[in-house]
From TrEMBL:
UniProt-listed CDD domains: M1_APN (cd09600)
GO cellular component terms attached to this protein's record: chloroplast
Protein name: Puromycin-sensitive aminopeptidase
Domain Peptidase M1 alanyl aminopeptidase Ig-like fold: 460-573
Spans traversing the lipid bilayer: none
Pfam families listed in its UniProt record: DUF3458 (PF11940), DUF3458_C (PF17432), Peptidase_M1 (PF01433), Peptidase_M1_N (PF17900)
Catalysed transformations (reactions): Release of an N-terminal amino acid, preferentially alanine, from a wide range of peptides, amides and arylamides
Amino acid sequence: PKEIFLKDYKMPDYYFDTVDLKFLLGEDKTLVYSKISVYPRTEGKFFFFFKIFFNFKFYSASVPLVLDGVDIKLLSIKVDGKELKKEDYHLDSRHLTLTSPPTSTFVLEIDTEIYPQSNTSLEGLYKSTDNFCTQCEAEGFRKITFYQDRPDIMARYTCRIEADKSLYPVLLSNGNLIEQGGLEGGRHYVVWEDPFKKPCYLFALVAGQLESRDDTFVTQSGRTVFLRIWTPSHDVPKTAHAMYSLKAAMKWDEEVFGREYDLDLFNIVAVPDFNMGAMENKSLNIFNSKLVLASPETATDADYAAILGVIGHEYFHNWTGNRVTCRDWFQLSLKEGLTVFRDQEFSSDMGSRTVKRIADVSRLRSYQFPQDAGPMAHPVRPHSYIKMDNFYTVTVYEKGAEVVRMYKTLLGSSGFRKGMDLYFERHDGQAVTCEEFFASMRDANDADFSNFLLWYSQAGTPQVRVSSSYNPDARTYSLKFSQEVPATPGQPVKEPMFIPVAVGLLDSNGMALPISNVYHDGLLQSVSSNGQPVFTTVLRVIKKEEEFIFSDIFERPIPSLLRGYSAPIRLDSDLTDSDQFFLLANDSDEFNRWEAGQILARKLMLSLVADLQQNKSLVLNPKFVDGIRSILCDSSLDKEFVSRAITLPGEGEIMDLMEVADPDAVHAVRSFITKQLALHLKAEFLSTVINNKSSEAYVFNHENMARRALKNTALAYLATLNDPELTNLLVHEYNTATNMTEQFAALAAIAKNPGQVRDDVLADFYNKWSHDFLVVNKWFALQALSDIPGNVDNVQNLLSHPAFDLRNPNKVYSLIGGFCGSPVNFHAKDGSGYKFLGDIVLQLDKLNPQVASRMVSAFSRWRRYDEGRQALAKAQLEKIMSANGLSENVYEIASKSLA
Ligand code: B3K
Ligand code: ZN
């Protein structure tokens, strides 16, 4: 397999102006005709004069035109109407090369044949449960027709689709429908025209028996946009929330970024077989059904929130991704980091900002930090890849979003908006790089961003240490920072990064201290705004060591550091436990209140893990119980915040902090603390359940979600006591629940304790919901994730459950992905979990390399465990590597993991 490098980027030699596609959809094959007007780069204005000025002939020698194409049969190829002879082109399994094409504009016509029915990779054109659909990002268009499959080729498309009318009454593509009609033999056709230039990864086609929920949106300039969400007819009632989310997103983008939708029609199609969440094809978004379909009875609050966020995300791509796209795939974060940032902000504005921030930071810590510390660590803008699909990662997406957030932290809302406006003004209709985004932010604000660009090129999570000191005589308070960026594969030595640290100071009563003057490098940095002191200031930590001195500080303050998590770093400070308890109780920055609790919990868990490893008996610090009690009983706090704040850090997060990860010890400690809390706070948890019940119909809004979240967290705590009376309560909750959020939470709580009750309720749930595959996936995931010892056998059996299907990514993610998320069972000492995954990856790879490669990633951090586990995991990776016909996707992850 070939590695591709950013430094090797070359501009294309040929551009495409218009692309006319014609699809004849059939049951055993599909014919694709493409007609492209091609012009050599040297036809551009500059080169035209250049050529005239020098010697026309000399600069007109033609260069080969290399087209990508995989798994397609070439039928014919014409240039300017003339069929090419065999000697004029070269065809291999990946490319079609025209050896000497014309030196000025020409028309290229290519006829091909493809086989969507047997395409299990779900990339290119494929059939999903009777319907045709496409997925082209990143490099799937080459499975449809021969093309320069790269994002800097932007062209205007038309698309004619012909198909059987009764099997495929609905035929969709990008842009506007300009023609349709009947054909002989029960067939019909449509023609779509997309007036916007686009890269081929945004092309889409859908054909099938679908019905739509229709609505309209009137834009800020008064245009009416038709909105349609397509699904099989029986699912249309479940699209109300998706439609609500779409309209909310359209309005939000106008209000917050001044971005209006640019066509008269916006389509969303939900399909059950889809590798990822969704795809932002121009005006024809295609979604995994999981992220469209919801009803109170079948979807949880988490599902509702995910739908809101992802519908928003794909819609926001219309400007950040489609109108302005990426020059090459290394720039992926240009559109993804920015669009994740936008969807995070959208969800914050629609719900609770603090809770959303907590959820996003937890996600970063649980998934991105481990990636950044492992063999797949890569910068937000990777330097190389073997298979681009492997780089749709938490680093490119979530860390990328943190990078965008730092611009906003440094520039403020209005400065950030100015930067965004300039970015669109400069680059609408272009395919650009991360530098262009950076330059827009800088130029719009005349900002000094010093070495900020390192965030795009250096991998690894910076480790920052802070020490503080107070000088009562001088009334100054000093914060000293030092930073270290760990070595990552291919990057042994790092430069210091530009880290914005938002800081506030609290006095001994917990009140915010005004900050007016900060000295840095002996220079006064006035931070007051319009003569008014501020309560939070953003320190710019740029060098390896920095000191900031606050003046006019009349008592030793408690610092609230990295407010709102102002940079994606690991922070260590000299704050004591009692300082952290103080912040937990008093910080006006709610995010940092949660953070203080997490810092305390992480420390507590690590010290109990050490005790356990030394065979000491475990004792829970009563101060911790009191801290949790006071949050639980503080009725002034937001309920979802409380639910988050009383939840311990995940097992993965704790293992990540250990020299040698010990899944059994971490699991035992987390269970121990949870159970102790349940014992000590049983009465409080019970009243939390009772006080947060509601007999009213399900409503999706923050207040109700928060109430349900708190109640469900309390139920989960109570379940750990495994007490018959409480089990009765859980079963009662399960039986009387009127929505999936509460029903599933009760089921999950019951499922914690092995026994007859668990078996009965799981069976009951399946019987209730066997007709709804999305709910059945929850049932798979719940069992897969279980920490019941020896659960691998149960998961193995579920593989042959009639509802399971290895070809459906959602089912794989629920059952196999779910299993890998259970630290005790996946990392079982006897290697049974590793063997299970090793076998299944090889089976999956034959069907769907993208899904297989996601699954194999669970092995990537094998070196973090003890020697016994290391040997067992390594053996599985080696087994995978030695398999015949391994996909590039799996090869890349497995080989980098072993390197
Ligand atoms: N852009 C798509 C992801 C495509 C993944 C290709 N393997 C969805 C999104 O991020 O919006
Ligand atoms: Zn995206």
